[in-house]
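User: Hi! Is it possible to get a structure for several chains at once, not just one? Here's what I have:
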Amino acid sequence: MTLNLAADPIALTAALVDIPSVSRDEAAIAGAVEAALRAQTTGFEVLRHGNCVLARTDRGLPQRVLLAGHLDTVPIADNVPSRRETRASAATGDETRASAATGDETRASAATGDVEEVLYGCGTVDMKSGDAVFLHLAATLAEPAYDLTLIFYDCEEIEARFNGLGAIERELPEWLAADVAILGEPSGGLIEAGCQGTLRVRVTAGGTRAHSARSWLGDNAIHRLGKVLAVLAAYRARTVDIDGCEYREGLSAVRVEGGVAGNVVPDEAFVDVNFRFAPDRSVDQALQHVRETLAPVFDGDPLLSLELTDSVAGALPGLAAPAAARLVDAAGGRFRAKYGWTDVSRFAARGIPAVNYGPGDPNLAHKRDEHVPVAQITEVTDTLRRFLSAEPA
Amino acid sequence: MTLNLAADPIALTAALVDIPSVSRDEAAIAGAVEAALRAQTTGFEVLRHGNCVLARTDRGLPQRVLLAGHLDTVPIADNVPSRRETRASAATGDETRASAATGDETRASAATGDVEEVLYGCGTVDMKSGDAVFLHLAATLAEPAYDLTLIFYDCEEIEARFNGLGAIERELPEWLAADVAILGEPSGGLIEAGCQGTLRVRVTAGGTRAHSARSWLGDNAIHRLGKVLAVLAAYRARTVDIDGCEYREGLSAVRVEGGVAGNVVPDEAFVDVNFRFAPDRSVDQALQHVRETLAPVFDGDPLLSLELTDSVAGALPGLAAPAAARLVDAAGGRFRAKYGWTDVSRFAARGIPAVNYGPGDPNLAHKRDEHVPVAQITEVTDTLRRFLSAEPA
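Assistant: Yes, the chains can be modeled jointly so their relative placement is included. Here is the combined structure:
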């Protein structure tokens, strides 16, 4: 299948959706993207690396912008090929977007009048519309004001160890150099800056096993978890403002498990707790906070223990950096905090300001009825074209 | 393999252990038992029913005693064939037995001096030693004072629906008629009367699913379980005396489970709770008690619900019945409450007094190092011979 990069990015989004690319099965789409970049762009060095496709200019411009998007999707759920529909404009409902600055607010659809065009299909939101915008701009920007690096990568939707951008970080780190990085992840057409950190701890409760018919001979590990859950239920999360972005933290039990058999007092149970923390805390500081929060129930009970199982640092918004500030300007000054962890933190860890900016409501990602208002694709394309064409100061 | 029923029941126990009979694989042992009963007893009607072997006399005696034992074992764990060992007499340690009447007490081993003979092997405790005692008595009782019914059955160690005694209850109920039933389950050589009832409820907590990065949009079902576990941890179980047997109840979480993914606030979690209740409560009354116990956390929270998943009634001790009282006399007046649920409750449900009485420490059942002091086999045999030979009043 040949992709036409010069076509409307809405049509290009549909064409990308119509090439199935569930994680671990990206060879076809990577091949189509590589061929199109080689044939339909000028001035780019193009490199295929596994199922990643990389392209960059080297015009000697003073600054470099990196555009990155993953090519894979979650499993298809009867939602490929794409289909375009006209529907009543949804000024409220699933087009309602949370604004970090002012709380929930309703934003009018970009479509005028009472109807809007919508594109349905797996990946329309997450994130082939973002990929389409980047590919279209690479082929059609007449006078880019920045050198450009494009990275299309695989395996973002599965375990982190398979992540294609992670592979590039390890194997081709020089390709990640940039003054600002834009990930085309769905952000509802708003710039989402930074991201929260996340860590998981496993709180394990011990006890003494016994037959439940003689429960007094045992010491029930599941019962012991009760006081841990009580602390989590009572926890009041912090909200903090960084660079004008409001971050709201959260401490959540995400898994609980215990039990030996229906007639046994169990001697072990655990609860996995996920702490999402604002990027003004390091992982160590965040872990310390979790320990302090649970200290009242841990102290004096040697049968409760805590182990860090997983952590990634957050990313400070970095909007003070000049190229990032100009991007915010081009987007009309609108931005908000990103809550979920995304690959932007890989750039933040390298000192590169990075934002999420792409069409589509992130709440529709991974849904069977995943769909994007096509006007958002146009809007993001126009904003990025404006940003990338302006002279850096 | 030919079983010699007239031999010492210790040797007969070893012979039975040496015929592997894991649940669902009892054909060989049932065949050996059937053949031996047909060839080596007189006055018995013998019936093979699946892998159950039934035998009964009909001498027109005024009362009937039923002796029942299962032939199957849990899976073998390198502990077949049996082996006999001499060891230092364990007057304490695993020979310590809980007495319902007086709390824990240490009972001197039946072995004299400082050493005792022990028989190791899968089924030595649970419950081929009990089977051996019954088979030996059937072949050697010169003048039984009662008509006898013997039932050897299969599939006691697996799901209740396979239980061979259950099959006889449904298909040959007339075989269960008796004035007292003795199950040869391991009881440490003490008469264990009645049994507690057991029921399980699943307490399910609902909530609202959300990404854990935006946990305030969700309502965490696992957190909600905290208050349920707090009630269980604080519960003070009742102790009640019935017919001189002390029953101690227990309310235990036996399983807890919840969680969708490591980054999701879960909308469902559950805890399975096992209530072991004294036989003065019916199942309905016991369930009502569980509901009342949890009412403080359930009231006003429509996202907590409770469902009965499993129940069996307890069995009143029934020691006031004449034949049961004589058995207690023959055993020197020693008895205690049975805690675990056993097949005795099938007889209790039919109005037949039923006790557990067999050699072996029940705490060693299902263990790799399962073993029985051989003196207990002799002691139980002697007691039952005394009981079955005496004229009923």
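The first helix of chain A runs from residue 9 to 17. The first strand of chain A starts at residue 45 and ends at 49.

User: Great, thank you!
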